[in-house]
Amino acid sequence: MRKQKNILLGLMCSATILSCTKSFDEINTDQNGFLSDEVSAKFFLTDTQYKLYSPDRFPYWRAHLIHADRFAGQFTFGFNGCWWSDGLGYTYDTGYTDAAYGWLAGYLGNLKGFTDFVQEGGELENEYMYAMALIMKGLYYQMYTETFGMVPYTEAGVEGILTPKYDTQQVIYKGIIADLDEAMAIIGSEERTGLGVDDAGPNDLYCGGDLQKWKKLANTLKLRIGMRALGADGDDFAAATISEALAAPLLDDASGSVVMEKDFVIDQWAAAAYGDVWHNFGGTGSKWTVSNILINMLQDNNDPRLSVYANPIVGGSFVYVNDGTDPNFQTRVDFVIATLDRAGADYTVTVNGTETTIEVPGGQYIGLPTRVNGDIMPYIRYDMFSLPSEMVTQQKGSQVDAYPEIVLTSAESYFLQAEAVLNGLQGATGDAQDLFAKGIKEAMKIWGVSDGDADTYIATEAAADITVGTLDEKLEKIAHQRWLASYTDGFEAWAVVRDTGYPAELAAGVTDPVIYELGTLNGAYPQRLRYGSGAQDNPNFSAVEPVQGANVQGTKLWFAK
């Protein structure tokens, strides 16, 4: 099915594409044009891939840090000197939401462009890269629909349809599954996308051109969607989907996870990282801390990921003066002290008249509670709380390894299998504890935790043991591990909380306005983002609310009801 055609030099000289991979260095200096055997769709693959998991800095700040990472409950704003309280994102803001919506809705154009090239009859037809395009479409739409809910799907990108209808999550999930099945059938037993220039190889940022790993990626995504949809109102496909996925190869310890390494050559205005916000906004205003829910969960269970997820605090002497202007002074100081207690911190408190001094030695791990409001920010001192590790905040251009963008992990594959076994689902086989342990080990592997440290954790910590307890307690432990494994993948971590209700402390929301930002949600946990203002330009938008519910952050999506 593959074929090559002579195409215009301009097709290969897109400025966007040429700026996004080192593979184009030689091409960019060749002034003699291209021969047919030098042209391949793989040169358009890289751009399509990284823009889904590493978009430019504008959405990386607004869609990721302000929204998904906030709601995931792993990163926090709100310390004294930060530009925002940790309520940012919980109170609807048109500009921030529009940025998130514009990025996700606009990504379809990138995906469609690549798909049109490689599909049957396309300028750069390649059936195996077309299979890749179908799988990327599934990854994209899963993220898109779980962020907003109903979105255009069946009519999106169809020639001649300028105002596509909005489809339900049930329809979208079924469509994704059908695409994944088609992609896996196309791949079959093939291992590469072609020979010579047609081998995607290093231009494939996800799987390095390994089609069998792509097939496992597709099947693991199929399992994720089936498990997420299971039990939702009107679900008529999840059980069969899960059974089919469990009967086929999934991501495992042999294949490893699908992650995307950071490219430090690409400019932050094409592909960003956390470090681009961390280092380039100046001072501490744009920086963030790690949440107490994450730090406490890691610390309480002697999790070896603690030191690679976060840094210990700087510590110091922190003075609070009751000058009579804050009627809630003591309540807020007590909250800070209670946070230290919950972290098991070493500290001393001295009260001298109107002054309260808290001495906190450095070197400890202390997380900041989520959703603290602007009034308590003066009490939340920067050096008292743990920051993300340098692996997370690594600045681009320094040529030092940073965290990889998570596409889909072998850890999640094992966790989902363990959950299926515990629930007695059709097709689920194996020992739940063994699957759970393998998942933990795979999750730690991504962050460079040694096998020995992982094995010790699995052998000694109750958090890694699902051989005892009630079914609900076992499922809670799996949910926690899925949430921990999604660190830096805020969209998936947020979906885990909405789907499972864990971590329960996060899912419960907040109630105390003296401490927390109740926001537009009045303290409830956010279930979705509101549509961007451009969505209303589509006349079919009016059909969404009667089906899905009000266009507010608190409306539960189909999979989470």
Summarize the structure.
The chain is mainly alpha-helical and 561 residues long.
Separation of the first and last Cα atoms: 44 Å
SS-based structural class?
A: mainly alpha
Fraction of residues in helices? Answer: 40-55%
Q: Write down how many β-strands occur, each being a DSSP E stretch of 2 or more residues.
A: 9
Q: Overall mean pLDDT score?
A: 92
Order of helices and strands: HHHHEHHEEHHHEHEHHEHEEHEHHHHHHH
Total helical segments: 21
Q: Could you explain how this protein is built, in words?
A:
The structure is a single chain. The protein is mostly helical. Among the domains are: 287-392, no CATH class; 409-487, Four Helix Bundle (Hemerythrin (Met), subunit A), CATH 1.20.120. It is built from 21 helices and nine strands. It has helices at residues 15-18, 25-29, 42-53, 57-72, 94-118, 127-148, 169-187, 211-229, 238-246, 274-280, 292-300, 306-309, 329-342, 390-393, 410-422, 432-446, 451-460, 471-485, 490-500, 504-507, 544-548, and strands at 75-76, 151-152, 166-167, 258-260, 289-290, 316-321, 348-352, 355-360, 405-408. The strands form four sheets. The protein has a three-stranded antiparallel β-sheet with strand order 6-8-7, with no helix packed on it. It has a two-stranded antiparallel ribbon with strand order 1-5. Helix 4 (57-72) packs across helix 5 (94-118) and helix 5 runs antiparallel to helix 6. Residues 1-32 have low confidence and may be disordered. It comes from Flagellimonas hadalis.
